[in-house]
Amino acid sequence: METDRAIVVGGGVAGLSVAIQLAVRDYQVSLFESNDRVGGRANVIEFDGFKFDTGPSLLNYPWVFDELFKAAGTSLSQELELIRVDPAIKFYWPDKETFQPSSDLTRLSEQCRRLDPRDSVGLFNFLRDARRKYNLSFSRLVSSNSDSPLSWLSAAGVGNLRKLGLFRSMDSQLGKHFHSSKIREALGSYGMYLGGSPYDLPGIFSIIPFGELEYGLWLPSGGMYSLIEAMERVAVRIGVDVQTGSPVKSIDSTNGRVAGITLADGSIERAQVVVSNVDVPTTMTRLLHTETGLTSNGYKPPKMTPGVITYYLAVDRELPKLNHHSVFLPEDPKFAYDQLMKQGKVPDDLPFYVSVASNTDHSLAPEGKSAVFLLAPVPLMSQLPEADWERMADDLKSKMFRRMNDHGISIRESDVIKQEAWSPVDWSKEFGLFDGSAFGAAHNLRQIGPFRPRNISSTVSGLFFAGASTTPGTGVPMCVLSGRMAADRVTEWARKELAT
Ligand SMILES: Cc1cc2nc3c(=O)[nH]c(=O)nc-3n(C[C@H](O)[C@H](O)[C@H](O)COP(=O)(O)OP(=O)(O)OC[C@H]3O[C@@H](n4cnc5c(N)ncnc54)[C@H](O)[C@@H]3O)c2cc1C
């Protein structure tokens, strides 16, 4: 058996990242992706001159990608052209109030002052506080592996725990600085993608809206999928053997050590190192085999983030009123999040977002037309076992059109030339997402840092994990970091193996 061969199962963002990082460390890397294209959730749909990113629609923390590319002897600017998007997001409320944050401090401060005159001062306090949290998190916690709560706590520094906002909610953290409930609702709405409501998630997550405001948002020219193409191109250039259309049936182990994988066509690939980029709970319940078969006995899946129905609409006209991102918030967000995440129901007053990337990059739709992406959060598949997803998709789309219409943004059914809609069932079938969860394991206090599903198997030596459901968490930059952190684990493991 070769000691320097590593197999990566799945070509999502973290799969590509770990493949690059291992190839750089002289592993002979083979990546097996079940679909005909890599990217996973960060995928692409193209038809009739329209191009839609399936999931992520903006890039943040560009230095994370630059570091990855630099490790492989190139750089982000050599591989991609980035279009700065600012302002990128506009929030809408049923009473017709709006909030349009920007990385331009004068504009941002004016937006805050408009909602509450005291909040232009609050903004500066927020930025100072969130910057401290952000710096502490990134320098000490987010990007390095930790083995126990104790080592995590000592890395954080016990004196910093309060400063990190671990013991108050995200909403109460924002409330320390902003009087306007609308600003709190807007900045807190990011919590939905982390699998909790801002009223329950820890205050440390106020660093997410801060990160976007402070460091900006970009669209790669040609759409987000250009980033995936660049990652694949770089991986292949440095020797990664990328095999698409190659579903893995099982990750095999003997005597507590990983042995390799079996592909769906029955062929066997051997390696002492296997990194699974397939959603961790899916890997654990569907892929991991020992001599006696599936080994999911006793495995307890983590709490997952909600599902989504996503829509890719080819619209027959321009939509100049819509920003790159528009977020439509409900009148009572707490009630809506409770319905979604605690009661397992579709919220009556639906929070949702719309993205018109073709307003930023005109190449994404034919002239005079728009590529429109809609995202409606919905419960997990297990919470709605009887759901008629197709019907729900139709109903929710009408609801979203009506809500947009209330704000003077009209998209009629007759404007839609062609469309696709993906329910949690589609997301699950297409990419192996556990229970149809869109963003992976939730980020409540019990599932962050040392409590998150680990990136090294505790039962099978030589098995590692990379992706949204393990450390550090969900989102494209985090998954790039997850790939590097999994590679660090492999290096550390190999060193110990050599020593024994
Ligand atoms: C609708 C939506 C919107 C989002 N918006 C944003 C955003 O704006 N910004 C942001 O940063 N993040 C966003 N995210 C989150 C981001 O897309 C994910 O966190 C990230 O892409 C997950 O990557 P991953 O490495 O976990 O791999 P995944 O995307 O989960 O990929 C796993 C890969 O494994 C493959 N696979 C599965 N089973 C097998 C098998 N048996 N054999 C071989 N291959 C297999 C799958 O086909 C897939 O390619 C969004 C996600 C969604 C769903």
TrEMBL record:
Name of the gene encoding the protein in the UniProt record: crtI
Residue ranges of every copy of the Amine oxidase domain listed in the record: 13-490
GO process annotations (BP): carotenoid biosynthetic process
Stated family: Belongs to the carotenoid/retinoid oxidoreductase family.
GO molecular function: oxidoreductase activity, acting on the CH-CH group of donors
Keywords: Carotenoid biosynthesis, Oxidoreductase
Protein name: Phytoene desaturase
Pfam families attached to this UniProt entry: Amino_oxidase
Gene3D superfamilies with a match to the protein in the record: FAD/NAD(P)-binding domain (3.50.50.60)
InterPro entries: Amino_oxidase, Carotenoid/retinoid_OxRdtase, FAD/NAD-bd_sf, Phytoene_DH_bac_CS
Pathway field: Carotenoid biosynthesis
